[in-house]
Amino acid sequence: xxxxxxxxxxxxxxxxxxxxxxxxxxxxxxxxxxxxxxxxxxxxxxxxxxxxxxxxxxxxxxxxxxxxxxxxxxxxxxxxxxxxxxxxxxxxxxxxxxxxxxxxxxxxxxxxxxxxxxxxxxxxxxxxxxxxxxxxxxxxxxxxxxxxxxxxxxxxxxxxxxxxxxxxxxxxxxxxxxxxxxxxxxxxxxxxxxxxxxxxxxxxxxxxxxxxxxxxxxxxxxxxxxxxxxxxxxxxxxxxxxxxxxxxxxxxxxxxxxxxxxxxxxxxxxxxxxxxxxxxxxxxxxxxxxxxxxxxxxxxxxxxxxxxxxxxxxxxxxxxxxxxxxxxxxxxxxxxxxxxxxxxxxxxxxxxxxxxxxxxxxxxxxxxxxxxxxxxxxxxxxxxxxxxxxxxxxxxxxxxxxxxxxxxxxxxxxxxxxxxxxxxxxxxxxxxxxxxxxxxxxxxxxxxxxxxxxxxxxxxxxxxxxxxxxxxxxxxxxxxxxxxxxxxxxxxxxxxxxxxxxxxxxxxxxxxxxxxxxxxxxxxxxxxxxxxxxxxxxxxxxxxxxxxxxxxxxxxxxxxxxxxxxxxxxxxxxxxxxxxxxxxxxxxxxxxxxxxxxxxxxxxxxxxxxxxxxxxxxxxxxxxxxxxxxxxxxxxxxxxxxxxxxxxxxxxxxxxxxxxxxxxxxxxxxxxxxxxxxxxxxxxxxxxxxxxxxxxxxxxxxxxxxxxxxxxxxxxxxxxxxxxxxxxxxxxxxxxxxxxxxxxxxxxxxxxxxxxxxxxxxxxxxxxxxxxxxxxxxxxxxxxxxx
Amino acid sequence: xxxxxxxxxxxxxxxxxxxxxxxxxxxxxxxxxxxxxxxxxxxxxxxxxxxxxxxxxxxxxxxxxxxxxxxxxxxxxxxxxxxxxxxxxxxxxxxxxxxxxxxxxxxxxxxxxxxxxxxxxxxxxxxxxxxxxxxxxxxxxxxxxxxxxxxxxxxxxxxxxxxxxxxxxxxxxxxxxxxxxxxxxxxxxxxxxxxxxxxxxxxxxxxxxxxxxxxxxxxxxxxxxxxxxxxxxxxxxxxxxxxxxxxxxxxxxxxxxxxxxxxxxxxxxxxxxxxxxxxxxxxxxxxxxxxxxxxxxxxxxxxxxxxxxxxxxxxxxxxxxxxxxxxxxxxxxxxxxxxxxxxxxxxxxxxxxxxxxxxxxxxxxxxxxxxxxxxxxxxxxxxxxxx
Amino acid sequence: xxxxxxxxxxxxxxxxxxxxxxxxxxxxxxxxxxxxxxxxxxxxxxxxxxxxxxxxxxxxxxxxxxxxxxxxxxxxxxxxxxxxxxxxxxxxxxxxxxxxxxxxxxxxxxxxxxxxxxxxxxxxxxxxxxxxxxxxxxxxxxxxxxxxxxxxxxxxxxxxxxxxxxxxxxxxxxxxxxxxxxxxxxxxxxxxxxxxxxxxxxxxxxxxxxxxxxxxxxxxxxxxxxxxxxxxxxxxxxxxxxxxxxxxxxxxxxxxxxxxxxxxxxxxxxxxxxxx
Lengths: 787, 387, 276
Fold this sequence. Notes:
The complex is a heterotrimer.
Chain A: H1 3-11, H2 25-29, E1 45-51, E2 57-63, E3 72-74, E4 84-85, E5 97-98, E6 105-106, E7 112-118, H3 121-129, E8 132-137, E9 163-171, H4 173-176, E10 182-190, E11 202-208, E12 213-218, H5 223-234, E13 241-244, H6 260-272, E14 276-279, H7 282-288, E15 295-303, E16 309-321, H8 332-340, E17 349-358, H9 371-390, H10 394-401, E18 410-411, E19 417-418, H11 423-434, H12 436-444, E20 449-460, H13 464-470, E21 479-485, E22 491-495, H14 504-516, E23 523-527, H15 544-571, E24 578-581, E25 584-587, E26 593-595, H16 596-605, E27 620-625, E28 633-646, E29 651-662, H17 669-689, E30 720-724, H18 741-744, H19 746-757, E31 767-768, H20 772-784
Parallel strand pairs in A: 1-14, 10-31, 12-13, 16-17, 22-23, 29-30
Antiparallel strand pairs in A: 1-7, 2-6, 2-8, 3-7, 4-5, 9-17, 10-15, 11-12, 11-14, 15-16, 18-19, 20-28, 21-22, 21-27, 24-25, 25-26, 28-29
Helix pairs in contact in A: 5-6, 8-9, 9-10, 9-19, 14-15, 17-19
Chain B: E1 2-8, E2 11-17, H1 23-30, E3 49-52, E4 55-58, E5 71-73, H2 82-93, H3 103-116, H4 122-128, H5 140-151, E6 204-212, H6 216-223, H7 226-231, E7 236-240, E8 249-257, E9 260-273, E10 278-287, E11 292-304, E12 311-322, H8 331-353, H9 370-373, H10 376-386
Parallel strand pairs in B: 1-5
Antiparallel strand pairs in B: 1-2, 3-4, 3-5, 6-12, 7-8, 8-9, 9-10, 10-11, 11-12
Helix pairs in contact in B: 2-5, 3-5
Chain C: E1 7-10, H1 14-23, E2 28-31, H2 37-42, E3 50-53, E4 63-65, E5 69-73, H3 78-82, H4 93-99, H5 104-107, H6 112-118, H7 124-131, E6 135-140, E7 143-148, H8 149-152, E8 153-155, E9 158-159, E10 166-173, E11 180-186, E12 196-203, E13 208-214, E14 221-222, H9 226-231, H10 236-243, H11 249-267
Parallel strand pairs in C: 1-3, 2-3
Antiparallel strand pairs in C: 4-5, 5-10, 6-7, 6-10, 8-9, 11-12, 12-13, 13-14
């Protein structure tokens, strides 16, 4: 680091609300991050999997090469290993078991059939080339909308229908639709995507003879859950397994899972008593793990003549793929659709049916935004359709129906408790910033441009009360954190969540700084390692700032009380008159001070100076935290975008993009901006670029990033962010979960803008990504209708 | 193994590498320089970008064996380099990294932008960053950090240099003799008896109509000789003819698309309809090496030509690929290869019908060495057909 | 994924490369910049037995001024064209073309000869050199031969190169400042494969006018009557319909748009010349 940077770090404010520079940057910027693929242990073997080239097939004979029989594993070699099972407790759920290596059938392209071990990945692939597998192909299900048809083959033979779960809710629907002046019914669809963190999955496992323990280094968002899952599959007690996440190169939900590869590598290391490594390559990721976002909606909106939204009716299908994944199950996404579709709007009636269908594709996983992105897409496109039907501006119909600030806190039609905020103000600011009249003027002048909005709220950090209702294997409860003052006045924090880019090493240090005044450079965060950190469900659901942040605040507060007792004794004032600043404990009148280093030294090395009782109140505490009401925070945002559309090429350019965002109190505004920018770029990928198509036999149609397009710097505009800051009354500092928000709004806003730009042609697009060919096809079809 | 000698981050290294080992793996696995990350190994994501001879390159598409005499600079090797120091500071101040995985490649590209394009504006920075994907930041901080450093430039200490051309030895022998790779020669067979499909839904279909200078009766008679008909399809070989009308024939079919190739082995059912003078071949085969499968149906029919003693052969093909070869993202290229194959088949058939020698004998290929690597039986067959 | 094993040798010259190809007995394949072959090797879709590395063959790394023409060595890299490190036979068109190829890190390794030998129909050099009327020089068993681009590119990923041939150079006629040029390509994403492209050369002094349609998943199409297309670009769509029947209408329309825009670029007033 250069000196000016160190100066900047030293000078910058460090507590809650400061854009403190990140503590984790230095190691990444100098190439010293340690990711899972960087781990190299003596005697380590690399794994290459033989993966299914077919989407659905019965497995016949598997022949291992003569010279590699010992080094090739198939399902029959996994004695005592259980498959991965994640059932929902909801009535009617159909159960699936995902084998670690395929047993009698393969159910999607890329499913692992055999594992080959060698001293390098290249040699392991040579070995995999020599394994002979006989597959008898079966008809594959590649399309969610027909998966339930009677003549369809079954993904799981023992089921009677390709459906994991069907749900239905009805909140006063029939009564609400009377008197509707406008009724629009639309079909919308979001394509299957690959989450594509820049680092794929990867796992290194080794057996520690000294600890008599399996040690698993894995790129994961939820190390403790992976440990529990490994114990279940391998039949081990928890104390026999330690999971250590190294630096994790992005996750976005992709690493919020117990993967079959983790189970295999752990099994192999345990069995062979040698370190074993598997690093997912990009082809495996794209062809075998394309696994999110694929939704289909038939949605009907009912509105009064003045634009008042009366009711919404929806039938939603989620393509859940072949298996129910651990721990979120195959039905989390559809369950979420039903509960959050109404979005930030008031309405009198709502009805929704959902199907989580099984297909011969990889299992679906909750990707950043989870169902919210699809739901926002369906709801916000429908709102635009209603506006067009009624001849009013899209922002006007939204303003009419948003929950107003005076109604906060507000319980919506599905029972969601909106904690705080001013949704209409977010819309108003976005409308102003994007300059709607200027766009209308350009349209009048003949330019093919369009403006689009989306507004949504993001429930984050929701806990027991919400997840218990969804009946999945993992219900989050209180979050724990440990805080320890070191003998020289440093602070060690331990949390069970795992950063995979969220800047937790910095933001949690800021919270500790807020409580104890310790410079953040002296705060060390230990995260993830199951041997060192309290149990946690991990990093998902935009929960870390609220839950881990709250836990760190609680632990450091308790630690602070103990430090104050000692400081008060040393400074001869009551503990209540001690405050913390700059690594010192001071009297409120400023007349005495003692450093935290001195207090630490005394407790550990000079206990004879401690007051009575202080020796038993150690300088290391673990506290559990849970908001008094755990229904979650509701951050919200309005996205506004201006696009230009080239009707000859079908290409869409983003001319301007505004996000008005309310994350409550921001712990680190720079980090919040980073989350919003990054999420929005992913949302733009969903909107315009990213699609993993499957052909009729279930073959994925892209194997490299040359075919699966992630947006690059040239595809992302300079996004303008405006912050509102309405504190959540539910959380420790008023902070709200914000990690996923950016990824929710773009598909809806961009599609609405594209449709605005195409309105004069009578063309409307209801499917993302809006690739050029999709636009050209839509225009051509419309022309074909002769209008 | 190939012996190389190169400089990495200022230190000389002599090493023996497998020719197939790319530079990133050599650095990561042999030199334990794990700052260079692999994000795709297809040259698209840019995570592995590093400096070779002062220029950013993809280390996943650069074989270590080609780096003899090179100067390699990885993210670990910039030390106190003033420009890299400023870039690092700007990346931190502008929050240009979150998970840090793309960062080494991003810094390398940023370094190149700053020293090569001092006038770059925001649009140019974004264009130049096209080859480096970041999934976390949305690029906002990265673009801002580079613009920040460009606004107040620092001279780059790392400069491009040209590695000298290789010099041949005086005896005219190649300066490096090829090193033999240990090949794994296991004969693999992925699917030994693929079912022959009744029909192919959703496949690619092509049709050609070929006017021939031959009477329909004679053409129809010629088509009864299935082995000769197969001989007209470049790259195809019949292994066992059918014993009865209901039993399939077995054979193989080699096709190359650029440097990729596949040798499908499988079975086909052949049916003739004398009354209609038409026929149908349905088959399926697998390529064990790529673990890909293909299935197809070819219908053919003889029609009378406009004049006497002339006929039209109508050939219609439907096919579908499965497995890795089908996941190649540009199916239109495959379709064109098949289309040209069909054209050659038609040419050959015409030549056969008209009593001439085959026009096209080698399998379809833009990669001519295929012919040499074809199975012996195929070469024998082709030789026979040519003779 | 990692490549299947192969043998490797570096050629000191094109003659050396030829010898090694012959010695390799058909299993040997040329490695130029490796930017297209590399991914296919890494995916094990290509499994050559041996690679002969051309990247440091001295005679393939130079430009020869032949008077009316320039002969470019096949192992010259895209970045060397982009940076103006090699003489430009055109009034400044080659750097702009080179700049549009993939990404800088790829351009630093990828070579013009490698690009032509790979013959991706969407490749910039394949389309633009066809339009510029380039010739390729090939060293083969019977000595050197020269082929026009139109005979060299046979189809997607298919060329006239025989197993023991080495593409050694590309010959371009010098274009005077009065010549006009337009190249337009459509790629959904910066640096990605073009989905449509077209190049237009109008060289009145030499009496050459050429319009080439690329990225059409077959060998580039050289329009028979470029003047007609220039006079009325609307005639291109029906023409393309005839020439590339199986393409869906939206695709054809995109290709026609590419031709229109390339024509526009070539005929626009000079000061509005588009760089690419």
